[in-house]
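Rotation project, supervised by the postdoc (A.L.). Task for the rotation student: set up a whole-complex structure prediction and record inputs and outputs verbatim in this book. Inputs entered:
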Amino acid sequence: MQPQPTTDSTAAPALPALRKRLKGLGPVVALVLLCIAGASLNSDFATFDNLMNVLTRTAFIGIIAVGMTFVIAAGGIDLSVGSLAALIAGVMIVAMNALVSGANAPSGLSIVMLGIALALAFGALSGTVHGLLITHGRIEPFIVTLGTLGIFRAVLTWLSDGGALTLDFNLSELYSPVYYHSFLGVPVPVWVFAAVAVAGAVILNRTPYGQHVQAIGSNEQVARYASIRVDRVKVLTYLLLGVCVAIATILYVPRLGSATPTTGILWELEAIAAVVVGGTSLKGGAGRILGTVIGAVLLSVIGNILNLTSIISVHLNAAVQGVVIVTVAYLQRGRR
Amino acid sequence: MRILSLCLAAALVAGHAGAAEKVTLGVAIPTATHGFTGGIVWWANQAKKELEAAHPDLKIIVKTAGSTPEQANQVQDLYSVNKINALVILPLESASLTQPVTQVKNKGVYVTVVDRGLTNPAAHHAYVAGDNTAFGRLPAEYLARRLNGKGNIVVLRGMPTTIDNERVEAFNAEIKKHPGIKILDAKYGNWNRDDAFKVTQDYLTRFKQIDAVWAADDDMAIGAIKAIEQARRTDIREVFGGAGAKFAVKKVIDGDRLVQADVSYSPKFIYDAIKMTATARLNGQALPARTIIPSVLITKANASQFYFPDSPY
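Outputs recorded:
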């Protein structure tokens, strides 16, 4: 192994703080412009109810994208999150249904709590396995997670026999407030999304661990020489992402009360798009949680506006989304 | 014709000491990626189980493919490795599978194509499909009756495909006959519950009065119903799905408030196609060139005939 010149920059940003801030405004500007467009096209766009609809449906992708920001900031990638969400949903439903039909079944509430605990454990475990395969197994993250993308979804399809896994009706009633209820007028998933985003931002920007993540993404060799425990930090990023996927799934299951083989399809690309649109470089280095949140909201807003209007042929929806993604990325250019 | 082919079969039997009666039938279908294809896979395996038990001279090999190239490879392997002499295929895509299927047909394999057709009709001997025109027309007729010829309907479309176009065109053509009924908008829900949920939420934001939703698929109907429940809207009187999924038929049987009718488009047609092909080939006969399995309006009166609780769909 060739020693690297030590003059390489590590985590320290070269740009002055103000210029950095201005550069990061791309997605905010795009979001504001989109909102103005939405409000002028349809008067219902700017209503509180519609805003809450958009934020609630963003919660799944948004929470996953917060976790994804860590993985990408450390120079990794995870393609399996959509399949993992589907499998966690399936495993939760199967386990909870099994408990409710058992001989001495525990109370409904404790079954739901157990289901949630199982989801978190499963997410953390899958993330850890990814991390270990990538660090100790020395396999590219792209390949590891491409493999598990197939594995997770196939296992779910097998579990559901190709059809739908549906949560027991009474449990579904008991569990549904987790998605459908509001606290102070704001739906529960939006609160959870906000909490995850704040926690993510604090961890990434205000802790040594967050600095290590960005240092590794910036230059892994230098980080090693700086005696950062690279493997451990990397495994932790995948573990965090696994937990984020589990949290998203915990919010998702009460929405429709079921998991099918199409659950979570392409979520990985939406999450990655949210991260990149938000200003985190796919090459790793500086991660931006706030940018990711705005990126995720931006993607939902495009879909919402297209549904609320009928100027553009429905065939072109994906094209409009593509144009906005590329435009925002263009506004972000020059960042690493 | 029948007598002729029987004579022919008899002659062949006499000539080759029974060898001609053995049928090795390949089944190439999509993998179970959503409820409907889950049903296809289940019914294909059901056909294998029942027909192999009933006919010792019959061997059925079921292959599922997730992509068009994979299915093309499977068709090739079924011919060269498994030595099939009959093929029942539900092509993932019409255009790209036409060549591979034509090639095995030219080598003497009897080909039945199911549901999605091939672009060249010479590529197969027989075609078996559901009735997509009726799939669109029947709900339109039913909703027009249910709304007494007056009201607002929103439409969820499937994925942009020829099947979807056929259904929506038939639906629109029928609705046009009722000037009191207005189609407010039609957007793609991609045969997916989550997408249907979002699109319906946005419809509910946009339109203050909706009398019925044509969800055009039972999976999408679930998403639509959840969005309606969440918004606590009481103006919607009917959510019409489609395809006869077991949970939807159950709702019809139970007299659900929003789901009172459905239209059949059962994945069971793969079972029918395999059975028809196998029995015809065992007797050395051919199938009619085109068999359309009718789509039937399911209401409380006949729903029990369409309820298959063991099927995943």
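Student's summary: Chain B has ten helices and twelve strands.
Supervisor addendum: The first strand of chain B starts at residue 23 and ends at 30.
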